[in-house]
Fold this protein.
Amino acid sequence: MNKLITKLQKSLAAFFAFVFTLITISTTYAQAPTAAAIAEGGKIFHAKCATCHSLGTNKITGPGLQGVGDRVTAPAADWMFKWVKNNNALRKSGDAYANKVYADNGNVAMTVFEGDLTDDQVKNVVAFVLNPPKEDDVVAKGPEGPTKKADNDEHPGWILLLIIAVLFIIVVVLRTVRRSLLAVTNQKQGLPAPEDIGLWKDTLKWIKTHKTHFVVINIFLVVCFLVYGWQYLWGIDVTTGYKPSQPINFRHDVHAGQNGIACIYCHSGAEKGKVAGIPTLNVCMNCHKGIQGSTPEYKTEIAKIYDAAGWDPQNMVYNKPSHPIKWNRIHNLPDFAYFNHSQHVTVGKLDCKNCHGDCTTYTTNEQFAPLTMGWCIDCHRGTQVQMAGNGYYAKLHESLMKQDSSRTITEADMGGLECGKCHY
Amino acid sequence: MANQKKYWKGLEELNESPAFIKARDKEFSKEVPIEEFLGRESVTTSNTSRRDFLKYLGFTVAAASLAACEAPVVKTIPYVIKPEEVTPGIDNWYASTFFNGEDYCSVLIKTRDGRPIKIEGNPKSNVTRGAANARVHASVLSLYDNYRAKTPYVKGAESNWASADKAVGDALTAAAAKGEGAKGNIAILSSTIISPSTNKVIAGFIEKYPTAKHIMWDAVSFSGMRKANETYFVGGKPIIPTYSFDKAKVIVSIGADFLTNWLSPIEFAKQYGEGRRLSKEKKEMSRHIQFESIMTVSGANADKRIQIKPSEEGAVALSLYSAVAKLTQKRAPANSSATPYDDQISKIADELVKSNGQSLVVAGSNDATVQTVVNMINDILGNYKTTININRECNLRQGNDEDFAALVKNMKDKKVDVLITYNANPVYTASAALGFAEAYANVPCKVSLSSVVDETASGADYICPDNHYLESWNDASPYSGSYSLAQPAISPLFCKPRTEGTRSAQESLLKWSGAENTDYYSFIQNHWKKELLPEQGEEGGGYMFTNLWNQTLQSGVFEKTADTIAVIEQEGSGHGAISFDISGMVTKIASTPKGSGYEVVLYQKTSIGSGIQANNPWLQELPDPITKVTWDNYITMNPAEMREMGFGMLEEDNHVASVATLKVNGTTIELPVFPQPGQARKTVGVALGYGRTKAGRVAEGPEKKGIGANVFPWVQWTNNTFQYYVGGAEIASANKTCEIGATQTHNTMIGRAMIKEATLEEWKKDPAAKNEVEKIKTLDGEKDFKDVNLWDDYDKKSPVNLTNNAGNNGLRWKMAIDLNSCIGCGSCVVSCSAENNVPVVGKSEVILVREMHWIRIDRYYSTDLTLEKAAKDDMTLSNQQYGMMLPSADNPEVAFQPVMCQHCNHAPCETVCPVIATSHSSEGINQMVYNRCVGTKYCANNCPYKVRRFNWFNYYRDEKFLEINPAQESNDLGRMVLNPDVVVRSRGVMEKCSFCLQRIQGGKLKAKIESRPIKDGEVTPACAQSCPTNALVFGNSNDPDSKVAKLMDDERNYLLLADLDTQPNVFYMTKIRNNDTAILE
């Protein structure tokens, strides 16, 4: 439910942001670029421009592009189109601002994109730069929100207890009321007041007079206990949804979602070996040398990388002692189960999503799959082996196809349920 | 005809003592020692009632389950900057070189996440050719030895490099200032150095301090052999030639245990295996005759073994010389006195001459005279053209005994001011005859470059600890022209800021020599560039050199053919030999000191050797190939003599041995006596390498006195060489007993026909000779076991089996074990322990029959002698004298049989497991799932091969094993050796050989990623990979081209206990003995 609300919030926010941008654009731009064009431009920007330009104010190799539309010779879009396409030509044409930019940036020429990008693409990039995403608006709040969701999940248990407590109080109150009423009626009828035998004895008396009820209730309670107990025991050490706080509030939604960075770029071990691996600081620094964060929140988190790597963002040098980041591990298989990423990713051609969920939406990373043996086995039973095209299976595949070409071979058929495949 | 021989593992089995029969019938033969915890006083005086106990139990269970709800937070810490070549979870392999001053081995080091965890032989080396022995395999654990020196010491106190360097530098300068006249007042004492670069470093050192002298000396010396060769050949160089055991048709060894100790055992074991291998294509094998006193591994593998006393080695050599000389008429026979073995020797000589130059005679003696006689024999036989190459010089064992004696004399005379010991531990290994310990105290400045604070280092003024070889750069040249590089597989473990750290010995010497650049790596590179490869290096512009250097670094080895220059002038057919005065040698040999009483052979064990790695628990727990004793030093003695003297025979309880006192030259040691069939009369054997007092907690034992006793002081100083035996010993009972951890009759298979063997002639006539399967007796008469089978065919419904039917495309793993090739060396056992995280349990647990090795090597003694035959041959032993013992216990034949889980297709263990913790895979592997096992031990009880091992303790956590088990949780250092692909098992679960499932899965995955079928030989379990003789062959039997599939067609193959129809996936090949002709009777 909470998730739904968050989603709703997000989409509403996105909608407003979109409308807002539309209004701004229409005032400055004759031909308002479409949202699709801006998105397309964003992709090109991240691929071609982000290594030298940030969307903020900080300088990487080239100047930061925040408010660039107000700086350059108006109309901004036209000037920037010429500049991006061929800044050399623009400078040679004697454009004053172009030569100023060149001089301000230590006479380092920008790459000429003429020939590399089409005119439309350049237009899209310019559109993107002039209408940068306002990340604060687009993205929902930090990790606090979702953490509460985990709390909400625990409510049913508490509610049950609460209901029981309330019922108990009602029973006690009703009993008292009944007794008082009885006392009053008795008094009226001149009978002696009912003997006060206490709650406990009263209960025992009730049990004696309502044996069938008592047995039925007890059976119900025992069954409840067993069912809940059984479920509880199965759930021990199953940590689906586990999302611990991390030393750096790393956001998959920003990296994998908005920026579309492939999983393999950071978790490069997944294709090669047993562990996918947590990217080391040098991988982070590949991009974050330039990207210092557009919001205060991002800046604080990214500063933590600089601190760990010993990087001085002002002077662009490593001049401090480095130390590793101690992440809290989320996916933690027991030692007696052997799991190898490359078997599943490279050979089985499985998508990361199958086991890790849609990371592009995670604000805090969490455990998606239960990682129980039953969960493994279910998949091994149902998944078809990717035999075709793999030389390892060539002979087997050929002979099987000869026998029955309609046949599907699942992992289980290949012995994927055998103990020794994962336990040694 | 079925085999009539009787096989036994120990005398208790031969004599079928009641205790033995009781023990063999039970899988867990020892009762659980509940007194250990019930016997404690606190238990009997405790007031805890049963009710209280139940309360506590309930509380603990509740507390534990509550605690289980909260999963602990696990940290995961990536690199700051990931090294380019490291991907977490993927192995990196580096080629390197193992050389500890004795054994040379070119190795491959497996590192995982930066930690070396496994050593394998390097197949690219043409010296060791992929072989490695137990010591090499265990050396990776020595890297993580907590006893290693972690910082320099100055005058016994922890210090830093600056002050140590200053103090040593000052002492050296002062000593060198005495001028040329004081030559030798600075001495570097080392064991053999085969590294050209290290030699250059030392040369530089001597240049800087001209009074310095370098002395090489080995704990077990080959000085006599070098001396003999110096005088024997024209050219006069003290060389050791290259031996080729694979080319020899007849091998005669006089006291040389060349398979596990002599000269270059790893290399020789490989060659020997080649020479002994039989196949459909190769119908001949070498014949091996061994003269020796103790039963060595080489002797155990010999076709004929003749027992002699160690003092008779010279006489035997001389007798053999005369016999050969007579037959060939090439030289005059010696006029020596007769030996008791002359009849046999003349037959052997006949055999040698018939082999027509394709024979090899070697002797283990360190006496130059004996070696000269052996040279003459080889010369007459023409072996110098075939099996011995004097033009390829062996650089191993360069130690010179006379130099060492001179040094000790100088030290005594206070002529030595600075003594630097490198890779040598003379305080422990020197013979008492020279009095090194006293002389050592005379040296004012003693510097030790040892990496552990050993007996010598602890007495030194300055300890400048060396790196472990896995942390160091180095090079090596085991033979002229053969080079190999050693590269670090990990940066030094002990380094700043935690400790001052270790430093390679070469860097220390460079520093003291005042070299500008003390980096040993660039030093090696420069040396190679300038001197080894000038044509590629300086002159060739360096480009070619870089290429070649990188290639060498990758392959580990480099062959330079130009270096194999003739070191010896050849003179016609005489092959350069100088004519010798044979009568002089007769006199010398006749004067060999014999002494009355017992002669003590000071031998080296396969595991411990000269004691360098005594602190290595893997080696201590490796059962000796012959005695099967772990964790101990003992006196081996002929059982008949033991019985006469009233010593216990280990029959009633095979873990209780009598203790004897052994007195030699006035010094006495006390050790248990172990009955060793085949030990020569009037001789006893005691192993070197024990009794270490300063080597670490494993070697020092629980009482810190050292395990066993050190017998190095008994080494004789005769004819200016050290002799590794001593006469005139007196042995007497110490009237007490002690416990001994012998595994020889553990897991015995109750006298069934395990070993099948035939002679070479029988095999040539019928390849299936002596390879019948037992019949099953039924009411309808004897039947083939297949006809009385209760089992269903294996896995009828498995789809992979379906695919098998459709063209054998699935995998079916099988292993072949060639009993003819197995030499019993134990390399596989240590290799398996390293690969599979097998815990070390220690002596007390071995005594309780709880050793955990997944693979064991059963050693069987056998004979076809009967009492009647013995009586007919007028054997000196009579039935009365030895009670039930067969006379053949005196000199039995030996067979080795490695046994691991047989991976039965009809596995008896699988059917009895109540929780299905052990099951069968479609690839034929018997799988064991530790996390499912509840420890009923039914499977172990039902296993006819007795290969299952039960975890009686949390070996990795229990403080009882703190000292010995590398995988202790509290020991961060030792744990680094664990293989992360294999689980560390916890208490209460069964474990056993898995066919190295992690390697199989890894190999399959690699093939899948590379999109190709699995190649034969690509997947190899640790045991098969480490076997120096390739006795173990593993592969996919569904692949008709695989080696193992071809061996399945060989008539020699048989299944262990085939009549049980367990259908194992491990099969054996019958042993073939080359002992047909009459000479070997």
